[in-house]
Write a structure and sequence with these properties.
By secondary structure, this protein is an alpha+beta fold. It has two domains: about 130 residues, no CATH class; about 80 residues, no CATH class. It has seven helices and four strands, in the order αααββββαααα. It has a four-stranded antiparallel sheet with strand order 1-2-3-4, with helices on one face. A hairpin with a 2-residue loop joins strand 1 and strand 2. The protein is globular.
């Protein structure tokens, strides 16, 4: 999800604090350089923060690269690489978990099943070596919604501000269509949200496409305002 500027900076500061206390001095410059590169990417920052909190195998190493393995329905698999090791990681709705060394430690069954694999070996064989994985968050390598992280062609997670309204082509979370269709003034319960989702499914939700932008269409307001 997109964070307000103050919360974003707080997250960056927290990552850098853990780097200062958990990474060898000679590697700190590389670690902070990667944080700067991803300072506007909340999922990447969440993964970096979790990595430096847990420091897998107590290795005081700097992360030098984040690679994109796959994304599905807002859940993203990443490879987190230091100079000598690579680890699997999963991030969803701002929460990240380190999964162990990529290709060496088993991936939890619930994650394997979610992405359609029977075992870790099948997953690694499908995606290949870490060195062949595209860099995460770089234009042209992975096309994800900037807020809810779904892939192009997938429906947004309900509530994502980038989703387009199928009735008026405005932003679904800004137009009044959802209230008009439900004959309500506000959405105050889970049952009402489920009713909205059913209406959207019947109408035909508009999947994410790369040309969709925060504030599109008809507004120049930022998501963090």
């Amino acid at each position: 999800m997109m964070l307000p500027e103050s919360a974003q900076q707080k997250l960056v500061d927290e990552v850098e604090m853990f780097i200062e206390y958990g990474v060898e001095q000679q590697e700190r410059a590389a670690a902070t350089a990667l944080v700067k590169k991803y300072q506007n990417n909340p999922p990447a920052l969440a993964v970096l923060l979790e990595f430096y909190k847990v420091l897998p195998e107590a290795r005081e190493e700097a992360v030098v690269r984040l690679a994109h393995i796959d994304s599905l329905q807002g859940v993203t698999l990443l490879a987190v690489s230091t100079m000598t090791h690579s680890y699997g990681a999963v991030v969803s709705e701002g929460e990240a978990h380190i999964l162990g060394e990529y290709g060496k430690e088993p991936i939890p069954e619930e994650i394997l099943g979610f992405f359609g694999f029977s075992d870790s070996e099948e997953l690694v064989k499908s995606y290949g070596e870490v060195k062949d994985l595209p860099e995460f968050g770089v234009k042209g390598t992975d096309v994800l919604c900037p807020v809810c992280q779904v892939k192009a062609g997938e429906c947004h997670l309900l509530g994502c501000p980038v989703e387009i309204c199928p009735w008026c082509d405005g932003q679904l979370n800004r137009c009044n269509c959802r209230f008009e269709k439900l004959e309500l003034e506000s959405l105050d319960s889970e049952e009402q949200v489920e009713a909205l989702q059913a209406l959207l499914e019947d109408k035909g939700r508009i999947p994410f496409q790369p040309e969709q932008k925060p504030g599109y269409p008809g507004t120049s307001e930022g998501l963090d305002k």
